[in-house]
Amino acid sequence: MERATVIVAIDGPSGTGKSSTSKAVAAQLGLSYLDTGAQYRAITWWMVSNGIDIEDPSAIAAVAGKPEIVSGTDPSGPTITVDGTDVAGPIRTQEVTSKVSAVSAVPEVRARITELQRSIASGAENGIVVEGRDIGTTVLPDADLKIFLTASPEARAARRSGELKGSDVQATREALLKRDAADSSRKTSPLAKADDAVEVDTSDLTLQQVIECVVTLVEEKRAGK
Ligand SMILES: Nc1ncnc2c1ncn2[C@@H]1O[C@H](COP(=O)(O)OP(=O)(O)O)[C@@H](O)[C@H]1O
Ligand SMILES: Nc1ccn([C@@H]2O[C@H](COP(=O)(O)OP(=O)(O)O)[C@@H](O)[C@H]2O)c(=O)n1
């Protein structure tokens, strides 16, 4: 039986489980996977590396079209390059994390990255899981399934500081909440739940339970098509 292409949008704040869930769901269902946060991190890395003043939105806007960002969408080994350089490591530094909200708030940056995301999604032959902050609301408003993941700040901070060895849970919690506030209050496509998204609170669920929940929702959508 021929299977219909399916587009899944997964949004939510940091540490709710978007990346782990999206990768696993895509791998299990044979779909492509796109980490849009990695793209915003990549353009931020380029701005920092080229000495662009992050405090100056017009300076960022003026060069937003310059870096060439390429995302590999295999869920078992996603990749990200800027002008041919592998930046998978450098985009996860504390410096990039602390600057990404300012860069991603610039409308010219969002326009460029959104266009790239739409072209990747439309080129995914078997369908795709796209995760971020504004996928269900802005990038792919016609997605077949929209999920909005949430979790308590305590659960999210504990998960994140478990990843960053030696980090302080309280400081991680403050940094997460600061980034959430910036991402939720920006003018252009803020972090928000789409009206037709299914909200899943992952605070008391294991990662495996979240994955199963999303796989079931995708299969129900596919069956209903
Ligand atoms: N439901 C869960 N329970 C416990 N830990 C989780 C859960 N979901 C994700 N994690 C862990 O939390 C961390 C952050 O998850 P990640 O998928 O990167 O979140 P996000 O992409 O939303 O920032 C990872 O170390 C991941 O393994
Ligand atoms: N669709 C998206 C995805 C990320 N972002 C920005 O990129 C940052 C990093 O996203 P991420 O998904 O890598 O963040 P983590 O959840 O991994 O901490 C976010 O804090 C947002 O500022 C965005 O504006 N829109």
UniProtKB/TrEMBL annotation:
<keyword id="KW-0067">ATP-binding</keyword>
<keyword id="KW-0547">Nucleotide-binding</keyword>
<comment type="similarity">
    <text>Belongs to the cytidylate kinase family. Type 1 subfamily.</text>
</comment>
<keyword id="KW-0418">Kinase</keyword>
<feature type="binding site">
    <location>
        <begin position="12"/>
        <end position="20"/>
    </location>
    <ligand>
        <name>ATP</name>
    </ligand>
</feature>
<dbReference type="InterPro" id="IPR011994">
    <property type="entry name" value="Cytidylate_kinase_dom"/>
</dbReference>
<dbReference type="InterPro" id="IPR027417">
    <property type="entry name" value="P-loop_NTPase"/>
</dbReference>
<dbReference type="GO" id="GO:0016301">
    <property type="term" value="F:kinase activity"/>
</dbReference>
<dbReference type="InterPro" id="IPR003136">
    <property type="entry name" value="Cytidylate_kin"/>
</dbReference>
<dbReference type="Pfam" id="PF02224">
    <property type="entry name" value="Cytidylate_kin"/>
</dbReference>
<keyword id="KW-0963">Cytoplasm</keyword>
<keyword id="KW-0808">Transferase</keyword>
<protein>
    <recommendedName>
        <fullName>Cytidylate kinase</fullName>
        <ecNumber>2.7.4.25</ecNumber>
    </recommendedName>
</protein>
<feature type="domain" description="Cytidylate kinase">
    <location>
        <begin position="8"/>
        <end position="219"/>
    </location>
</feature>
